[in-house]
Amino acid sequence: MNLKDTKYKLAELFEAYTGHQAAQMDQLPGSGSDRIYFRLRKDEISLIGAYHHDIRENEAFFSFTKTFTELKINVPKLLAIHPDRMHYLLSDLGDETLYDRIRKKHLSKEERPALCVIKKALKQLIEVQINGGKNIDFSQCYPREAFDRQSITWDLNYFKYSFLKLTGTPFDEQALEDDFQTLCNFLLEAPSDFFMFRDFQARNIMVVDNTPWLIDYQGGRRGPMQYDLASLLYSPKTGLTDVKKELLLDYYLTHLSKFLPVDAPSFKKHYYGFVLVRILQAMGAYGFRGISERKRDFRNSIPQAIDNLNKLFEHEQLAINLPAIHQIAQHLKLSVWAEAVEVKTEGLTIRITSFSYKKGIPDDPSENGGGFVFDCRGLPNPGRFPEYRSSSGLDNKVKDYLEQYQQVLDFQEQVRAMAAISIKEYLNRGFNHLCVNFGCTGGQHRSVYQAEKFAEWVKNNFEVEVVIIHTEKMNWKKDG
């Protein structure tokens, strides 16, 4: 993807749709997908521009959005599509997700607003499942038209390869495959002539005036009702107690009975099977994203997933015998992965890093990604002179050398002005991580100096936690 080209095409779409040139275009924080979003503004007009390279997936999104809009289901309006079918405009639903609302609950200890939105989201889900099942053009689904045996197998193999094998968890492969087949056969018994959202979780539910709006449903397909319900109620991000999970399950069934005859015992029998497959699929994601890609929030979800997995067996909620999976659950309960990780959930942590461009930009270990990368190679370089080569940006003589140049001070001011916008917004929205990187040729002089000066400024101006890392410190040139 060419970012400059994407911005140009989205700006063209904005002007063609509104009749105005966009005065501002801001890239939004990344999500779990590889879709890229921008907010485009002109006076009171604010729209969301999106880019995704996979045209078939985009066509699914376009088709589903058209149908949901006709059904008066709360989804963003599809306003304009570029001829390349990879760039498009959506109505702006704001910034608050259900996950943000739940985090506010944890911070304020007031849970009623969050539970109210969850209940509304369950009502919305039923409309999507039933009316979507009757009206969606399932031939547009991508990559699968239905949640069939192949789809279930993909989820289970994600658990096997991206969690069990990645973490070195011991298991009997044949016995596990036997359990997978038993589970598949059982799940395929459930009625499945509904629209399955596929990723119905708190980050994919926007909150506008206390009303839920749904996004990121492009992976939807024909399927059972239980999967989406399990996805929301058993997600660690939703933060529900066992009692509330059961109460909300009953709430869902009570509302569902207004539309369809409901055999509650039969529904629940298959529901817990889908809870299991959703937990296993999520653990695959936590392994891949959290362990392989080192994203902290995914890794920190592992203990809760292990706890949920074991409770299914301990509470005898599964209607089928799955001895290999049960044995794995018991092993994981005693493993290091079951230990809760101490996570700072309140306030904002700013991770400030100096690095060498020879080694590449450092990875961002947070879930949200993003932040800033500032290139210090345009500044005067003390490393060119013998008297500074064994020193670093921590030393006074390097500081004195750099601070004699006005462009060094101008650089600091511009960095602070840009970063302040995000810091204030992140604090206002309750975000917990921002990454700010400073790079130079060797990662020893200019980047270290700028990182330290920026950290000092942040500490003096904001109530945040600051973590500063000099990635090349072990490789700095020393005398002798």
Q: Look at the structure and name the CATH superfamily of the largest domain.
A: Aminoglycoside phosphotransferase (APH), C-terminal lobe
Total helical segments: 15
* Quaternary: single chain
Based on CA atoms alone, the radius of gyration comes out at 25 Å
CATH architecture of the largest domain: Alpha-Beta Complex
Classify the beta-strand content into a percent band: 5-15%
* Named CATH topology of the largest domain: Aminoglycoside 3'-phosphotransferase, Chain: A, domain 2
Query: Helix-strand pattern, N to C?
Result: HEEEHEEHHHHEEEEHHHHHHEEHHEHE
Give average pLDDT, whole number.
91
Q: Give helix % range.
A: 40-55%
Structural class: alpha/beta
Distance between the termini: 46 Å
**Number of β-strand runs:** 13
**Spatial strand order of the main sheet:** 1-2-3-5-4
Overview of this protein structure:
With 480 residues, the protein is an alpha/beta fold. The radius of gyration is 25 Å and the shape is globular. α5 (149-167) packs across α9 (264-292). It folds into three domains: 3-91, Phosphorylase Kinase, domain 1 (2-Layer Sandwich); 98-338, Aminoglycoside phosphotransferase (APH), C-terminal lobe (Aminoglycoside 3'-phosphotransferase, Chain: A, domain 2); 349-475, no CATH class. The chain has a five-stranded antiparallel sheet with strand order 1-2-3-5-4, sandwiched between helices. Helices cover 48% and strands 14% of the residues. The relative contact order is 0.09.
